[in-house]
Amino acid sequence: MTAYDWRWKVAYDDAPDASARFVTANEIHIPTGEPVRFKLNSADVIHTFWVPRLAGKTQAIPGQTNEQWLQADVPGVYRGQCSQFCGAQHAHMAFEVIAESRANFAAWFAQQARAPDMPNDTAVTTGKSALPRSGKLHRACEDGYRQSITRASACDIWSPPSCSC
């Protein structure tokens, strides 16, 4: 997980098949009843990863990787928050941990990892063809067609231009 001013990038990058890896923003899914390890770092300033109902606080520090283990034994949505004041938009550093059964987690993971269907809506295809053939907007939209919307959002909207997702 990487903290940015003022959001969290969650990379599900431990799948053996590289094509099954993906990124979300501010939303973490975990299976219930299993410990899950998070590797935390920051892209800018010190942030603190905290899910009060599941674990204590762990800092995300630029240039350093820290670990935090979470385990939710009861399905549900657990609110998390950066508890280190990190600037004017600090309140936007909230996130959710969604704990679900192993079967529901596996289904969610498979859905996120697969490429989305190409839209066949006329307005969508017309809009896509009207975009300029250069610039970030076009690349973001193109990525959106090759990747899931979550991945395009996290990589192209939530990350700084220098980020490589």
UniProtKB/TrEMBL annotation:
Pfam families: COX2
Organism: Caballeronia sordidicola
Protein name, as recorded: Cytochrome c oxidase polypeptide II
Record-linked CDD domains: CuRO_CcO_Caa3_II
UniProt domain Cytochrome oxidase subunit II copper A binding: residue ranges: 1-111
Subcellular location, record wording: Membrane; Periplasm
Catalytic activity reported: 4 Fe(II)-[cytochrome c] + O2 + 8 H(+)(in) = 4 Fe(III)-[cytochrome c] + 2 H2O + 4 H(+)(out)
Keywords carried by this UniProt record: Copper, Electron transport, Membrane, Metal-binding, Transport
InterPro entries, per database record: CcO_II, CcO_II-like_C, Copper_CuA, Cupredoxin, CuRO_CcO_Caa3_II
GO BP: ATP synthesis coupled electron transport
Gene3D superfamilies: Cupredoxins - blue copper proteins (2.60.40.420)
One term of GO molecular function: cytochrome-c oxidase activity
Phylogenetic lineage: Bacteria, Pseudomonadati, Pseudomonadota, Betaproteobacteria, Burkholderiales
Sequence similarity: Belongs to the cytochrome c oxidase subunit 2 family.
GO cellular component, one term: periplasmic space
